[in-house]
Amino acid sequence: MYVTEVSFECFADTTISEAERAINQLLEAWRQNGQILGREFAVALKDGVFKVRLLLPEQQSLANRFNSPWAKQAVDGLKAAKLLHPREKLIGLDINSETSNSEPPSWQLLYTSYVHMCSPLRSGDTLQPIPLYRIPATFNGDHKQLIRWQTEWQACDEIQMASASAAEFAAVNELANVNSDLFRRGWDLRGRIEYLTKIPTYYYLYRIGGHDKQEELSRCCPRCGNTHWRQSEPLLDLFHFKCDQCRIVSNLSWDFQ
């Protein structure tokens, strides 16, 4: 992934509130389309120029051809706020993040965690993140619904990792239960992505708990009861189970690894 600096220069008198609204609308549109990563963006003003540093999946993530209808509308809205078209200056490669996938995958999956800022869509061949703007819009012109699902998944993951309150059990239920609202919405998004891309797309089902390792190794798919979904070797060194019928991958309980 890459770090870039985007500048917004005033071409006439404006107000900070007008400029702030126009810039934030564009940043949010880019975020909801997967073109920029993260949730908070510090916008600085100096000598009539607004500047913000952003994390991108690829060097060309902000190219106009990737803009959603909402991003294009937000770019046009800059003029009303007396701001010129944004100028971009690439800073360089971010050494603390993952490299985006560049090859068409044979299969893909929805996988994220509270420590990941990248796309939740991953290549099944390499586990590298796939930039969301490189696939057709999932709903209403962009990937807002998918970004919202990812945010909720990560929030539940952070709660259960903290293990500091009774909320941990509710969070784990959302992550690991095929009857939870989080699973249902994520699994439906998975199906939508598979339909749009024509690439087999799976959902990662978090697993923790269980009585013992042997029972874990013999557990069946919790959605269809498939008893043959255990893999001879963990896929990508992570997923011990894969149900092709339900499009689910899962890990051996973290309690027994």
UniProtKB/TrEMBL annotation:
<dbReference type="InterPro" id="IPR016908">
    <property type="entry name" value="UCP029037"/>
</dbReference>
<dbReference type="Pfam" id="PF10071">
    <property type="entry name" value="DUF2310"/>
</dbReference>
<protein>
    <submittedName>
        <fullName>Zn-ribbon-containing protein</fullName>
    </submittedName>
</protein>
